[in-house]
Amino acid sequence: MAALQANPRPLKALTIGRRRPSPSLNPTRLRCSASGKSAERSYSVTLLPGDGIGPEVVAVAKDVLSLAGINFQFKEMPIGGSALDAVGVPLPDETLDTAKSSDAVLLGAIGGYKWDKNEKHLKPETGLLQIRAGLGVFANLRPAAVLPQLVDASTLKKEVAEGVDLMVVRELTGGIYFGKPRGFGTNDNNEDIGFNTEVYSVSEIDRIARVAFEVARKRNGKLCSVDKANVLEASMLWRKRVTILASEYPDVELTHMYVDNAAMQLIRDPKQFDTIVTNNIFGDILSDEASMLTGSIGMLPSASIGASGPGLFEPIHGSAPDIAGQDKANPLATVLSVAMLLKYGLGEESAATRIEAAVIETLNRGFRTGDIFSSGTTLVGCKRMGEEVLKCVDLQKPAAVLTL
Ligand SMILES: NC(=O)c1ccc[n+]([C@@H]2O[C@H](COP(=O)([O-])OP(=O)(O)OC[C@H]3O[C@@H](n4cnc5c(N)ncnc54)[C@H](O)[C@@H]3O)[C@@H](O)[C@H]2O)c1
User: What PANTHER family is this protein classified in (predicted)?
Assistant: First the structure.
């Protein structure tokens, strides 16, 4: 049971499905493809609809998952504001226990005006941090692909945005956000200071680097490690370890880039990137920058994976209280999160590909929610968009369309 594959039960047979041939693969890790008839396998999925548009988009994604040709048992549990209202805490113990004992977790979104003034431990967002910590998910995968149908949604020039298809692999549980010492104090001049510590151990670097190498070899075999090794000791160790590990992945072409240059290159020439791996703080910033290349927050999925146990899959958008309950939400980010759940969480690659293909076909047929609408297309609501995706889930003809 390993990161990215995270398949909590032994499958009858596992084969690694890749785009590029690779001489050395560790079959116990990452995105193994399950072989055999999908319908024979069965998984439990914890659904955490959350707040705002969360329940609307999760309902659509659940229907799509049900059509993936695999047996699922769903269990819906409260998190965020809805859990606060129901039981007074943002992450009830039962929710975490259920999530931990399932094969994968699908989250909608949390948060809303109603709870904005709550104390920190009673904020919906605290529930989100708690479930990430509780599941031990240390690798955050955020794809950013500019779909040809939506190229005009990008703020970049068409010729720059067209064909962008990259993945940011961000370390999620270490670095300066968690490093100690941290706090407030005074300096020698008796001036108030705030301080934090950027710290990474070899094991923390190695495990995120391995995830990234595996992701890269499943994509187009290019990995760019982003650091600040010209200034920071933690980055110097990062670069050293990533370079050492590269010898285990001869099929992956490794490059290094300083973070300031990476921020610039993402805008100047984003097509040069395939897979990016970086630490927590650089990944926080670069993954947001990369996602905005696509210009459509309602289209972007994410996956968070641990060393063992279920992964957490969620759209990158929030609960969108401004449109909640109005059937205006774009459910496609959550549907694509389901594709990541299948691919990275369960190793069910062909089922994932069918769902990705269905999303593309729905867009090809011209259906658009308000956030991605343009003249000449058909404006639909969240439910109708879901119905159109369901119509396009063709169980017989998987076709590779995205490299999520
Ligand atoms: N992972 C999460 O659950 C998560 C992430 C970010 C924000 N939040 C929370 O969500 C609440 C709202 O935050 P925000 O407004 O900054 O961000 P948001 O992502 O909820 O909304 C930003 C804008 O994008 C639009 N939007 C978002 N998702 C959409 C979709 N699927 N379809 C169509 N339009 C969509 C919204 O209508 C809004 O105009 C806050 O309480 C925040 O804490 C939760």
Answer: 3-ISOPROPYLMALATE DEHYDROGENASE
